[in-house]
Amino acid sequence: MADNEFFIIPIVTSVAVTLILGVVFSKLYKGNDKVDEGFELNYFKLSYRRKMIRTVMLFPFIVILLIIVYFFYNWSLIVFVSFALLPLLGTTVQMLYNYNKWKKEEAEKCN
């Protein structure tokens, strides 16, 4: 096997497992009461407001992790930027999605 295959297989497996678990837990907790105060470890039990807050709090850790990866791995700049865009864009999209859902949910409560 080539070196690239050893690198790609764990990434593809991790992404697949994450997506499958995300779908399963989304279906499992759909329609349940959501937590908007206090500590809740399970992301899927949180309200959209709390999901957005957790995502905002996670963003600096992602940036720190990417800085560590940049300094400890000898990747070319194009590979690193390609790698870094995935979590940065994913987190940004998740943050915007949760914000929009929170505001929509808030507007529905007022009506």
- Number of DSSP helices? 3
Report the C-alpha radius of gyration, rounded: 17 Å
Ends apart, CA distance between termini:
60 Å
Low-confidence stretches are none
Oligomer: single chain
| Largest pleated sheet | none
Percent strand: under 5%
Write down the secondary-structure element order. Answer: HHH
Helix content class: over 70%
- Overall geometric form: elongated
The count of strands amounts to: 0
Class from secondary-structure proportions: mainly alpha
Mean pLDDT, all residues: 87
Q: Can you describe what's shown?
A:
There is one protein chain. This protein has helices spanning 3-29, 48-72, 77-110. The N and C termini lie far apart (60 Å). It has a domain at 46-110. It is mostly helical.
What are the defining features of this structure?
111 residues, mainly alpha, 77% helix, elongated
List the helices and strands and how they pair.
Elements: H1 3-29, H2 48-72, H3 77-110
Short description:
With 111 residues, the chain is an all-alpha fold. The protein is built from three helices and no strands. Helices cover 77% and strands 0% of the residues.
